Amino acid sequence: MTAETLVELKDLQVHFPILRGVLVDRVVGHVKAVDGVSLSIPRGSTYGLVGESGCGKTTLGRALLRLVEPTGGTAVFDGVDLTALGSNAMRTMRRRLQMIFQDPLSSLDPRQNIESILTEGLATHGIGADRAARRALVGETLDAVGLPRWALSRYPHEFSGGQRQRIGIARALVLSPDLIVADEPVSALDVSIQAQVLNLLATLQADRGLTYLVIAHDLAVVRHICDTVGVMYLGALVEQAPSAELYTRPLHPYTRALLSAVPVPDPDVEDRRERILLTGDLPSPANPPSGCRFRTRCPWARERCAQERPELRTLAAGHTVACHFAEELE
Amino acid sequence: MTDLTPMLPAPEPRPAEPDSQTPTASLAGLTPKARRQRLDRLAELAAVHAEEKGRSLWAEAFRRLRRNPAAVAGTVVLLLFVLVALIGPLFVPYDPTSTAWADQVKEGQNIIPGPSAQHWFGLDHNGRDEFSRVIVGARQTLLVGVVATALGLIVGCLLGGLAGSAYGLGGRAGRRIDNVVMRVIDMLLAMPSLLLAVSIAALLGPSLTTVMIAIGVISVPVFARLLRGSMLAQANSEYVTAATALGVRRWRIALVHVLPNSLGPVLVQATLTLATAIIEAAALSFLGLGNPDPAVPEWGVMLTDALTRLEVAPRLTIYPAVGIIITAFGFTLLGEALREALDPKLRR
Fold first, then answer.
1. Which domain, by its residues, includes B219?
2. Domain of A293: which CATH number?
3. pLDDT for A193-215, tens place per residue?
4. Which domain holds residue A213?
5. Does the first or last residue of chain B, that is N or C, have fewer Cβ atoms within 10 Å of its Cβ?
6. pLDDT digits (tens, 9 = 90+) for B10-19
7. DSSP letter at A308?
8. How far A163 CA sits from the closest chain B CA (Å)?
9. What is the ipTM of this complex?
């Protein structure tokens, strides 16, 4: 994949201050939700971000769209550093950067009907000459996501989960963005509908050349639609590889543990395969462990892991790992 | 809905009955005409489904309200009350300020004539027709309740809305605005409400306007806090993030998304405040801070006057008291029903 880069994150950080105090707030520490993530997404491809709850993947997605303000690093989108944009310039830029939310119901205003939801972005960005033009555009988008036209006069609570997610997709799509950040786009849906929505996303990508950043905790979902996968742990990337490579040859102990938790639909293989059980919880991002972030739960942790934080190293084409002993473990 | 169909087991084919509910079930053995009719009916069914308009949350809440017997009862009581207040004074048998029958009242001998065919509720201590006074008093009571509540609602919503949208969407500067506004509100809230109302009324001198202002002011902090809290909850919701991601301006998000979704509890509180406003107006009048002209009938004043003659004519306390109770009860019934109707947890 040698296409031009659309999104380039460099050492992106989101540190939330921990405030304490009665009258005057004092900063007593920081929750390092995202702590120095660098990645790049080529135009027209899909980047998958996986990790367990609380690892900062949602915050990363939102920081890229500046729904959460990044506290350090840069996020370059199509040559423009988003973190340096003023609020008005950023607002204009939002047409090209859209988002799909995890919970389709709570991300739709319950008092807006579908037409109002879908035309709001158009009106905001002055797309479409008049009401009729906007209506036509909205109608086309409804067709594209497979919703009937009569949905326009209805309200979000009158739809099923899968239909609501299509509404959310239509809302993002109607602005014809370049990048869509999909935050757990299917985890709130039934399994049968998950496939429908994922296929819809893939079709739309093929038709419109969209670029996706898909955030998920479900490895199967990511495998299904992503070109490149990044694994996050405690605010940082620990491994990044082309999708097929990551699933066949995971190098980081954390990735291996995640993959070993995915059941295999063959009872013989399922009984024999090696399983790596992680003990304990994710450490507090306010007070991360020294050295390698993963060492407190890593079955192969050694002394060096406590002293030195491993950098991302390239071990194969496009395959980078942040582990001192990745080669040995293989 | 339609998306769920792949999950469900395939429905068993129905036996072809002549009058089956599914129009296509028995198309095979029919004459062309009957078949066409069935197909038309099928098309009709589908068309109705497609043309049916969506129902907004307000419309649904109204539908639920109509089915709730408490809401209907409350509305009937209130309509009666409003009707009496608006057109009752046109139909009263006597002028409520006329003391034409003063000679029948002998306070020295503890004689105040009771109900009779001429005077349904009897006479009051000044020889005025009690029935006419109760009816005309309803107008004053309604006026005080509505104006005071409206005052509290408007000022409270302005302050609460400002604080709520500033805190929810305005970043650090917004939090500061919110802090200033809410500390003022807290100061109002810290004082016992009736004491505050009495102080205001004493400051402005006794009149009906004073009563309205005093009661309005004491309901301001309640409305402000309620709307602010409700807006803060909404400002953290995903659809606000979604609107931000769309690029919608902040003031538009506050007005179009956050505010309408936060108004439910405030509306409920307004109906309940109407009830307490009427009671408090009576209390202030009772304390002598209401309309200084005793000739104009008002339920609270009537209650005060009647109290000193409780052992002679206890009925004189009962008429205005029952009026106050029924009205407050009506508003409370409606308010509770409204709260239930707007409760998102009860949505289907």
1. 58-346
2. 3.40.50.300
3. 888 889 999 999 999 999 999 99
4. 5-104+179-194+203-329
5. C
6. 444 444 444 4
7. S
8. 8
9. 0.87
